[in-house]
Amino acid sequence: MIRVVLPWHLRNLARVDSEVTIAVSGQVTQRSVLDALEEAYPVLRGTIRDHDSAKRRPFLRFFACEEDLSHESPDAPLPDAVVQGKEPFLVVGAIAGG
Amino acid sequence: MSGVRVLVGTRKGAFTLESDGKREKWDVNGPHFGGWEIYHLKGSPADPNRLYASQTSGWFGQLIQRSSDGGKTWEPVGNKFTYDGVPGTHQWYDGTPHPWEFKRVWHLEPSLTDPDTVYAGVEDAALFQTTDGGQNWQEQPGLRCHGSGSSWAPGAGGLGLHTIVLDPSNPKRMFIAISAAGTFRTDDGGVTWKPINQGLRSQHIPDPTAEVGHCVHRIAMHKSRPNTLFMQKHWDVMRTDDSGESWREVSGNLPTDFGFVVDVHAHEPETIYVVPIKSDSEHFPPDGKLRVYRSRSGGDEWEALTKGLPQQDCYVNVLRDAMAVDAMDSCGVYFGTTGGQVYASKDGGDNWSAIVRDLPAVLSVEVQTLK
């Protein structure tokens, strides 16, 4: 099972606690994790990735294992620690004022 | 009539303000969707418990929320707004072609007869429609694909379709306004659209009387006179009596004719309201005095309404969707400010008081008169 940590607003939207756990079939990549996340929580569709292009929204970042994976290919394998559930995949909102 | 519900969209959430028919004591409910920008929320004329809200964020994009119990509880519905076909380009600030990109929903206009049908005005400017209560949204491409679309350019706030006025006497007719393209009308339910900007004069564009390119801020109609519209343009207050075929200026003795809101009294179709703002460079009231101006003659002659409004050191703005009226026997008028106040008058504007003073900056105000 893959652990995913969402930003506060998306946790509220999906009505989940600090961390969600999802099953991912096949290779564990950003795309497959987010596909599974959106399948489990349809309300998140369009909030992390653009509906049509599936690109990451500009003010969000993807972290794991103390690495910024935001610019990695969405089809690149995620670190083993994420695959094994030892570390979460983090969706992080940019810090910005206003 | 038993009460009034005021729907307030702010920079940091939505609020509902409720009162009985006396409109003296108000319950302030919210924030709903705290921390999110609520550009607009509005109730269905066909079912006052059905509300729709545009919830948006620079981080997380667009959401649409729906309530079936008058705003007590909400559920997210469809948030996919995809332009029909290959969207092409409009004009960018520097004059170059710029791809059409969906950014947010500025305005939601529920059908007059069907609670599940809603029109959405979006940025970049286009008109969408749902017929299933917000689950699915389809563009009405006839507007964006009007021959002038590639020349539309954004105002400072973006290329937003911000005003949708439905004709209560003709379900095929609708008026919309876009900053900064102008006003358009359809007579065939949205299949084809016609620019209706003859008579507008805008000095900030190369051809001041161009067919499109005008920064229209807001239009309003009284339901008993669907061929008469009032407009607050960037500068100038205008009216038409032939469904937009021609406009004439009615700014008259206003201290400044720049502003954003315009609305019509619920029972007097020639009584209209604006809030003059000093200029497009200084978005606050002239002389630090917050004054609503009322004309009882459909324009040209205006009187300042000041009782209960701050008359010194006031530098708030009143944005385009932030004024509304109720339909009680004595018409109530409401507006919200960027300072977070929501002011109400239960006597058509003669006397004002703040329902609430310290909300986040108010983006929109709508009113439901509850039976």
List keywords for this structure.
heterodimer, A: 98 residues, alpha+beta, 3 helices, B: 371 residues, mainly beta, Methylamine Dehydrogenase, Chain H, 1 helix, 42% strand, globular
Largest beta sheet of chain A, briefly? 5 strands, mixed
**Helical proportion of chain A?**
10-25%
Q: What would you say the CATH architecture of chain B is?
A: 7 Propeller
Reported for the largest beta sheet of chain B, the result is: 4 strands, antiparallel
* Overall mean pLDDT of chain B: 96
> What is the CATH topology classification name of chain A?
Ubiquitin-like (UB roll)
Shape of chain A: globular
Proportion of strand residues of chain B: 35-45%
Round the Cα radius of gyration of chain B to an integer and report it: 19 Å
Helix and strand content put the structural class of chain A at: alpha+beta
- Enumerate the strands of the largest sheet of chain A in spatial order, edge to edge or round the barrel: 2-1-5-3-4
Q: Report the structural category of chain B.
A: mainly beta
User: What oligomeric state best describes the polypeptide chains here?
Assistant: heterodimer
Number of strands of chain B: 30
Radius of gyration of chain A (Å): 12 Å
CATH homologous superfamily descriptor of chain B: YVTN repeat-like/Quinoprotein amine dehydrogenase
Cα-to-Cα separation, first versus last residue of chain A: 37 Å
Ranges of chain B where pLDDT stays below 50 over 5 or more residues in a row are: none
The interface involving the most residues is between: A-B, 18 and 14 residues
Reading off the top of the CATH hierarchy, the class of chain B is best stated as Mainly Beta
